[in-house]
Amino acid sequence: MTDGWIPYGRQLVDDDDIAAVTTSLRSGWLTTGPAVDTFEAELSSVAGAPAVAVSSGTAALHAAYAAAGVGPETELVTTPMTFVATAAVACALGARVRFVDVDDRTLNLDPEAVGAACSSATRVVAPVDYAGHPADLEPLKAQAHAVGALLVEDASHSLGAEYRGRPIGAVADMTTFSFHPVKLITTGEGGAVATGNAELERTVRRFRTHGLVRDPDSHRMQGEGAWHQEVHELGLNYRLADPLAALGTSQLRKLSRFIDRRTELARRYHSNLASVEGIRLPITLEDVRHAWHLYPIRVLEGRRRHVFDFLRSKGIGVQVHYLPVHLHPVFSDMGYEKGSCPVAEQAYDELISLPLFPDLTDDLQDRVMEELRAGLRV
Ligand SMILES: *Cc1c(COP(=O)(O)O)cnc(C)c1O
Predict the structure, then answer these.
(1) Whether this model's pTM surpasses 0.85
(2) 326/93 Cα distance (integer angstroms)
(3) pLDDT at position 205
(4) How far away, in angstroms, is 28 Cα from ligand 1 center?
(5) Is 83 in the pocket of ligand 1 (CB under 6 A)?
(6) Whose CA is nearest to atom 3 of ligand 1?
(7) Chain segment 115-131, per-residue pLDDT in tens
(8) Structural domains of the chain ordered from first start
(9) What CA–CA distance (Å, rounded) separates 183 from 191?
(10) Ligand 1 centroid vs 157 CA: distance in angstroms?
(11) 3-class state of residue 153 by DSSP
């Protein structure tokens, strides 16, 4: 931040992270080595279920959806308040996406509306823990299971969060994470799928490595030599390299410190902005622990654009999360219409994400709040 620009989010990489990557580079393993096993083991203890590391959050969605049977003639039910990947991956698999409107309090999927959108064609219900606030997972899972579908939670915002006292990763049938630099921890690029279902875990592991089957007992071609490996179902190369996994392990050890600082910053925003007129602050429901990936406020009375431009002109890198996915031109071209998710669309017109990251100082946060007040006054 030497140039004075305050981004909405960014990574915190320290000397211990750099040392961990250096050690990995000297180990002789660049991929499929012990650093990946260590990262998966530590991630499993945070997520409360076995975890498979992959090369991005998008790859994690792809592997999870494929394992759940998402494909042509099937549907995936999801939220428009997400990054485009949550829906795009289902389209890439040939499935039809059904966008369901969100709950105005949390901008997370409303389980009743999801139930109404589910059918025998539904393979996956894919909630997103918007901004780090866990979706209402138990009722969503019940709705998915009622039609024989799986709950695949896109937890790109919520590693380390909790739902009814259980870690995110231990509730849904499969949970996906992203380790992009703006997320809770980073591996540069990276992701993971957590699942307590051993069959799904095996399928995701095979998908990560071209679908290769190595165990001789499982081969359909018997009598081949020791060189032999064969493919039963197609996969891709979605492996996470060892130096990145080593960075992930080092970052994971600081996750609870990162979330504590994010929570403290959110508390400071709450207490200092509570009485400011013309905005609405995010809320936290009772049965969750929030991960505070984002701090999205609502700017009322049609003043969002003005306040956004004002803050940007003051060097504050605010952002808008998100353009509802069905409004992207590629989705309008497929026939999705404006007006179909009015709560999400109204939110989009009002949202601004304020800066929130672990090494944001109190002083800089105070500057953000001062400029926000100034922007609302003029
Ligand atoms: C970041 C993100 C993704 C994609 O993750 P990548 O690691 O960038 O591929 C998917 N869904 C949501 C909600 C995200 O925030």
Answers:
(1) yes
(2) 17
(3) 98
(4) 30
(5) yes
(6) 57
(7) 999 999 999 999 999 99
(8) 6-252 (3.40.640.10), 255-377 (3.90.1150.10)
(9) 10
(10) 8
(11) strand
